[in-house]
Amino acid sequence: MPLIKNGTEIENEWNSLAEGQSFEGQPNTLLSLQEFHDNYEAIKDSNSIVGVALTVDDEVDSLEGKLDQVALVTVHFPSFADGRGFSQARLVRERFAFTGEIRAVGHIIRDQYLYLVRSGVDSVDADRATEAEWKAAIEEFDTFYQPALNKGTAAYRLRHKRQAAAA
């Protein structure tokens, strides 16, 4: 599956623990939320940088105050119709001021890419479109009704600026 970041295909540098394998401070290790909590003290003590893989049923709030050792958070989309990953990404980015990478994984379609970016997602691990199609998806719209985490300004704010400038 291609890994798309900023509309460009990149290499995946993260590895998950094999079944039965214990975390021993390996770099670029992607842990489930439970594995992260089980190994949190060891991660903190060893100053390891890890990733956390969230499922749609995981409580994002359990990461509060623990993201200083985390460089990657993945949010899982079990189907393109399940929007819980959008909420998880936004909560991690906005509520916890997470500055690391947020990656969407699972059943993601090209039409969702722009909205993933607007929710705080940096990269997408999906196989449903070419690199050119992912890049085009991010450039389809330049005005939005809802405010978001990316740099776009909401339409109502643009309208208020124009009205204030005309007055």
Walk me through this protein's architecture:
The chain has 167 residues and is α/β, with parallel strands linked by helices. The protein has a single domain (3-140), classed as Aldolase class I (TIM Barrel, Alpha-Beta Barrel). 31% of the residues lie in helices and 20% in strands. It has six helices and eight strands; from the N terminus they run E-E-E-E-H-H-E-E-H-E-H-E-H-H. It has helices spanning 33-38, 40-46, 84-95, 113-118, 131-138, 155-166; strands at residues 3-5, 8-10, 15-16, 29-32, 50-54, 70-77, 101-106, 123-125. Strands 2-1-8-7-6-5-4-3 form an eight-stranded mixed sheet. Strand 7 (101-106), helix 4 (113-118) and strand 8 (123-125) form a beta-alpha-beta unit. The longest helix is centred in the middle third of the chain and has 12 residues, at 84-95. The protein is globular, with a radius of gyration of 18 Å.
Topology (SSEs and partners):
Elements: E1 3-5, E2 8-10, E3 15-16, E4 29-32, H1 33-38, H2 40-46, E5 50-54, E6 70-77, H3 84-95, E7 101-106, H4 113-118, E8 123-125, H5 131-138, H6 155-166
Parallel strand pairs: 3-4, 4-5, 5-6, 6-7, 7-8
Antiparallel strand pairs: 1-2, 1-8
Order of helices and strands: EEEEHHEEHEHEHH
Figure out the total of helices.
6
Give the name of the CATH superfamily: Aldolase class I
The percent range for helix content is 25-40%
Keywords, separated by commas or semicolons:
20% strand, TIM Barrel, 167 residues, alpha/beta, 6 helices, eight-stranded mixed β-sheet
